[in-house]
Amino acid sequence: MTEQLFAEDAYARSCDARVIHSAPGAIQLDRTVFYAAGGGQPGDSGVLKLADGTEIAVLNTVKGDQAGDILHLVAEDAPLPAPGTELVAELNWQRRHKHMRMHTCLHLLCAIIDAPVTGGQLGEEKGRLDFDLPELTLEKSEIDARLNELIARDATVGTRWISEAELAAQPDLVRTMKVKPPSGQGRVRLLEVSDIDLQPCGGTHVKSTGEIGPVTVRKIENKGRHNRRVNIIFKEA
């Protein structure tokens, strides 16, 4: 099982770690700052640095077959450090930070639109959420203005943990219809945007909404009888 340092500190850019297992294309460590793809957020990329100066590029990070396992995906012909090898795992921080900003922005979008979320995805420059709405009643300009107002508010963003039993007693906390919070570990992490949003989330986020920066609602799409897709981009993009 990999210790998930990003769950407690999304701003940690590197960490010392030890190889648990390695095979062509994948390396598992005892601890990592690399986020494994899930919940619409891509897995992190970066590099593994060995003591002899060898650097192994991490192309993607995914969850393993066993709960809690995280695999750092590398090229099939990449050097494979033996189990027990100590190294430094270092993120592509610029890419990760953009994911953190956009993921937090999507929480604001979720708070603005009062409807269940049917899907979502984010990248370095853009993100989107799909909502279960029977009619296209969303106003692009209004959502744009409200999003940027919440960003400018510079509200505090933080995490806390509750037990699975506590979450079961508060089902309204779960806004997503298709992606359920991970279970079986006894506790669930909540993402809280002060006075704006509170829901289970295992992703990485910034410390305050002001860090997101200005955004634009690029378009709203009709994706079926009950599916409305809201697309967001950073204004800097």
Summarize this entry quickly.
With 237 residues, the chain is an alpha+beta fold.
Topology (elements, then pairings):
Elements: E1 3-4, E2 14-23, E3 26-29, E4 31-32, E5 46-50, E6 55-58, E7 60-63, E8 70-73, E9 86-91, H1 93-112, E10 117-122, E11 126-132, H2 140-152, E12 157-163, H3 164-168, E13 187-193, E14 197-200, E15 215-222, E16 227-234
Parallel strand pairs: 1-4
Antiparallel strand pairs: 2-3, 2-9, 3-8, 5-6, 5-9, 7-8, 10-11, 11-16, 12-13, 13-14, 15-16
Helix pairs in contact: 1-2
CATH topology of the largest domain: Threonyl-tRNA Synthetase, Chain A, domain 2
Low-confidence stretches: none
CATH-defined superfamily of the largest domain: Threonyl-trna Synthetase, Chain A, domain 2
Report strand order across the widest sheet.
6-5-9-2-3-8-7
Largest sheet: 7 strands, antiparallel
Compressed to H and E, one letter per element, the order equals EEEEEEEEEHEEHEHEEEE
Q: Share of helix among residues?
A: 10-25%
Question: Looking at the structure, what is the overall shape?
Answer: globular
Terminus-to-terminus distance: 38 Å
Beta-strand percentage?
35-45%
Instruction: Give the integer mean of the pLDDT values.
Output: 92
Topology, number of strands: 16
Provide the number of structural domains.
2
Which architecture of the largest domain would the CATH scheme give at its second level? 2-Layer Sandwich
